[in-house]
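Quick illustration, no need to memorize.
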Amino acid sequence: MKNFNNQKNKKGGYTILETMISLSIFLIIILSGMSSLLNANIVYNRSNSFRTVLDNLSFIVEDISRNLRTGYNVRCVDDGNYSTSQDVPKSCSLGGGIIFESDVGSAVSTGDQWIYKVESPNGVDFGIYKSTNGGTSFNSMTVATVYLDSSSGFSVLGAPSSQASPQDSQQPLTTIKLSGWITHKGVNIPFSLQTSVSQRRLDI
Protein backbone atom coordinates (compact mmCIF):
# COMPACT_ATOMS: atom_id res chain seq x y z
CA MET A 1 0.00 0.00 0.00
CA LYS A 2 1.21 3.45 -0.78
CA ASN A 3 1.13 6.13 1.85
CA PHE A 4 -0.17 9.43 0.67
CA ASN A 5 0.92 12.45 2.67
CA ASN A 6 -1.87 14.91 3.01
CA GLN A 7 -0.40 18.30 2.35
CA LYS A 8 -2.26 21.33 3.49
CA ASN A 9 -2.81 23.86 0.76
CA LYS A 10 -1.75 27.27 1.92
CA LYS A 11 -3.82 29.93 0.22
CA GLY A 12 -2.36 33.46 0.14
CA GLY A 13 -4.54 36.37 1.38
CA TYR A 14 -4.38 40.05 2.36
CA THR A 15 -3.15 40.72 5.81
CA ILE A 16 -4.51 43.53 7.94
CA LEU A 17 -1.32 45.52 7.38
CA GLU A 18 -1.60 45.25 3.59
CA THR A 19 -5.23 46.31 3.75
CA MET A 20 -4.37 49.35 5.85
CA ILE A 21 -1.57 50.35 3.49
CA SER A 22 -3.86 50.02 0.46
CA LEU A 23 -6.57 52.02 2.18
CA SER A 24 -4.07 54.73 3.16
CA ILE A 25 -2.81 55.04 -0.42
CA PHE A 26 -6.39 55.25 -1.66
CA LEU A 27 -7.24 57.99 0.84
CA ILE A 28 -4.10 59.94 -0.09
CA ILE A 29 -5.07 59.84 -3.77
CA ILE A 30 -8.65 60.92 -3.00
CA LEU A 31 -7.52 63.77 -0.75
CA SER A 32 -4.99 64.94 -3.34
CA GLY A 33 -7.72 65.00 -5.97
CA MET A 34 -10.07 66.92 -3.68
CA SER A 35 -7.31 69.40 -2.83
CA SER A 36 -6.63 70.01 -6.53
CA LEU A 37 -10.35 70.45 -7.15
CA LEU A 38 -10.69 72.95 -4.30
CA ASN A 39 -7.65 74.89 -5.48
CA ALA A 40 -9.06 75.01 -9.00
CA ASN A 41 -12.35 76.30 -7.62
CA ILE A 42 -10.56 79.00 -5.59
CA VAL A 43 -8.55 80.08 -8.63
CA TYR A 44 -11.73 80.18 -10.74
CA ASN A 45 -13.60 82.30 -8.19
CA ARG A 46 -10.66 84.66 -7.87
CA SER A 47 -10.32 84.97 -11.64
CA ASN A 48 -14.05 85.52 -12.01
CA SER A 49 -14.05 88.26 -9.35
CA PHE A 50 -11.00 89.88 -10.93
CA ARG A 51 -12.65 89.78 -14.35
CA THR A 52 -15.78 91.42 -12.96
CA VAL A 53 -13.69 94.28 -11.58
CA LEU A 54 -11.77 94.64 -14.85
CA ASP A 55 -15.09 94.77 -16.70
CA ASN A 56 -16.11 97.61 -14.39
CA LEU A 57 -12.92 99.54 -15.17
CA SER A 58 -13.32 98.89 -18.90
CA PHE A 59 -16.90 100.15 -18.73
CA ILE A 60 -15.76 103.35 -16.98
CA VAL A 61 -13.09 104.06 -19.58
CA GLU A 62 -15.49 103.28 -22.43
CA ASP A 63 -18.24 105.47 -20.95
CA ILE A 64 -15.91 108.46 -20.55
CA SER A 65 -14.36 107.95 -24.00
CA ARG A 66 -17.67 107.61 -25.81
CA ASN A 67 -19.20 110.72 -24.25
CA LEU A 68 -16.05 112.80 -24.64
CA ARG A 69 -15.75 111.84 -28.29
CA THR A 70 -19.17 113.30 -29.09
CA GLY A 71 -19.00 116.18 -26.60
CA TYR A 72 -17.40 119.62 -26.85
CA ASN A 73 -16.16 122.56 -24.76
CA VAL A 74 -13.92 120.30 -22.70
CA ARG A 75 -12.59 121.89 -19.53
CA CYS A 76 -9.81 120.27 -17.52
CA VAL A 77 -10.23 120.93 -13.79
CA ASP A 78 -6.92 121.19 -11.95
CA ASP A 79 -8.01 123.48 -9.12
CA GLY A 80 -10.94 121.52 -7.68
CA ASN A 81 -13.46 124.13 -8.87
CA TYR A 82 -16.35 122.43 -10.66
CA SER A 83 -18.97 125.14 -10.23
CA THR A 84 -17.67 128.13 -12.24
CA SER A 85 -16.71 128.63 -15.89
CA GLN A 86 -18.12 125.23 -16.78
CA ASP A 87 -18.62 126.17 -20.43
CA VAL A 88 -15.13 127.66 -20.84
CA PRO A 89 -12.70 125.18 -22.45
CA LYS A 90 -9.39 124.74 -20.68
CA SER A 91 -6.29 122.60 -21.17
CA CYS A 92 -4.11 121.22 -18.38
CA SER A 93 -1.36 118.63 -17.99
CA LEU A 94 -3.06 116.75 -15.15
CA GLY A 95 -6.38 117.49 -13.55
CA GLY A 96 -8.63 115.68 -11.16
CA GLY A 97 -11.66 116.04 -13.41
CA ILE A 98 -13.15 117.20 -16.70
CA ILE A 99 -16.27 119.17 -17.58
CA PHE A 100 -17.82 119.22 -21.04
CA GLU A 101 -21.03 119.67 -22.96
CA SER A 102 -22.61 116.42 -24.08
CA ASP A 103 -23.76 115.95 -27.65
CA VAL A 104 -27.31 116.86 -26.57
CA GLY A 105 -26.26 119.74 -24.31
CA SER A 106 -26.44 123.46 -25.00
CA ALA A 107 -23.46 125.77 -24.78
CA VAL A 108 -25.70 128.61 -23.59
CA SER A 109 -27.38 126.62 -20.83
CA THR A 110 -26.10 125.98 -17.34
CA GLY A 111 -26.60 122.87 -15.28
CA ASP A 112 -26.45 120.44 -18.21
CA GLN A 113 -22.70 119.87 -18.33
CA TRP A 114 -21.25 116.43 -17.78
CA ILE A 115 -18.52 115.98 -15.20
CA TYR A 116 -16.15 113.11 -14.47
CA LYS A 117 -13.86 113.48 -11.50
CA VAL A 118 -11.41 111.48 -9.43
CA GLU A 119 -12.20 112.10 -5.79
CA SER A 120 -11.53 110.58 -2.39
CA PRO A 121 -13.82 110.77 0.63
CA ASN A 122 -10.88 110.14 2.98
CA GLY A 123 -7.91 111.51 1.03
CA VAL A 124 -6.49 108.04 0.38
CA ASP A 125 -8.94 105.84 -1.52
CA PHE A 126 -9.99 107.53 -4.75
CA GLY A 127 -12.85 106.66 -7.09
CA ILE A 128 -14.52 107.93 -10.27
CA TYR A 129 -17.66 110.02 -9.91
CA LYS A 130 -20.02 111.14 -12.68
CA SER A 131 -22.53 113.97 -12.98
CA THR A 132 -24.86 114.76 -15.88
CA ASN A 133 -26.42 117.87 -14.34
CA GLY A 134 -23.52 120.25 -13.96
CA GLY A 135 -22.39 118.86 -10.62
CA THR A 136 -25.69 119.10 -8.78
CA SER A 137 -25.37 115.41 -7.95
CA PHE A 138 -22.71 112.76 -8.49
CA ASN A 139 -22.83 108.99 -8.78
CA SER A 140 -19.92 106.68 -8.02
CA MET A 141 -18.83 104.54 -10.97
CA THR A 142 -16.20 102.36 -9.30
CA VAL A 143 -17.06 99.22 -7.37
CA ALA A 144 -16.12 98.90 -3.70
CA THR A 145 -13.04 96.76 -4.35
CA VAL A 146 -11.40 99.26 -6.74
CA TYR A 147 -9.14 101.93 -5.32
CA LEU A 148 -7.55 104.62 -7.48
CA ASP A 149 -4.41 106.46 -6.44
CA SER A 150 -3.59 110.16 -6.65
CA SER A 151 -1.84 109.77 -10.02
CA SER A 152 -5.18 109.05 -11.69
CA GLY A 153 -6.78 111.89 -13.60
CA PHE A 154 -7.15 113.66 -16.93
CA SER A 155 -4.97 115.72 -19.22
CA VAL A 156 -6.39 117.90 -21.98
CA LEU A 157 -4.56 119.41 -24.94
CA GLY A 158 -5.98 121.85 -27.46
CA ALA A 159 -9.13 122.63 -25.48
CA PRO A 160 -9.31 126.41 -26.10
CA SER A 161 -11.30 127.27 -29.21
CA SER A 162 -9.53 128.66 -32.27
CA GLN A 163 -11.64 131.79 -31.76
CA ALA A 164 -10.22 132.31 -28.27
CA SER A 165 -7.16 134.36 -27.45
CA PRO A 166 -4.49 133.13 -27.76
CA GLN A 167 -5.67 131.03 -30.66
CA ASP A 168 -5.28 127.28 -30.55
CA SER A 169 -5.21 125.22 -33.74
CA GLN A 170 -5.09 121.77 -32.16
CA GLN A 171 -8.09 119.47 -32.02
CA PRO A 172 -8.95 118.76 -28.36
CA LEU A 173 -7.30 115.57 -27.10
CA THR A 174 -8.10 114.14 -23.67
CA THR A 175 -6.00 111.48 -21.98
CA ILE A 176 -7.64 109.36 -19.29
CA LYS A 177 -5.37 107.69 -16.76
CA LEU A 178 -6.64 105.29 -14.11
CA SER A 179 -4.17 103.56 -11.83
CA GLY A 180 -4.51 101.94 -8.44
CA TRP A 181 -5.24 98.53 -7.06
CA ILE A 182 -7.96 95.93 -6.73
CA THR A 183 -8.52 94.33 -3.32
CA HIS A 184 -9.60 90.70 -3.29
CA LYS A 185 -9.65 88.73 -0.03
CA GLY A 186 -6.90 90.80 1.50
CA VAL A 187 -4.69 90.74 -1.60
CA ASN A 188 -3.95 94.01 -3.47
CA ILE A 189 -3.59 93.63 -7.24
CA PRO A 190 -2.19 96.74 -8.99
CA PHE A 191 -3.52 97.98 -12.33
CA SER A 192 -2.94 100.87 -14.72
CA LEU A 193 -5.16 101.92 -17.64
CA GLN A 194 -4.66 104.82 -20.03
CA THR A 195 -6.35 105.92 -23.22
CA SER A 196 -6.64 109.09 -25.30
CA VAL A 197 -9.79 110.46 -26.91
CA SER A 198 -10.06 113.05 -29.66
CA GLN A 199 -13.17 115.20 -29.99
CA ARG A 200 -15.13 114.50 -33.18
CA ARG A 201 -16.50 118.01 -33.54
CA LEU A 202 -14.03 120.24 -35.35
CA ASP A 203 -12.48 122.86 -33.11
CA ILE A 204 -9.61 124.14 -35.22
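Helices lie at 16-70.
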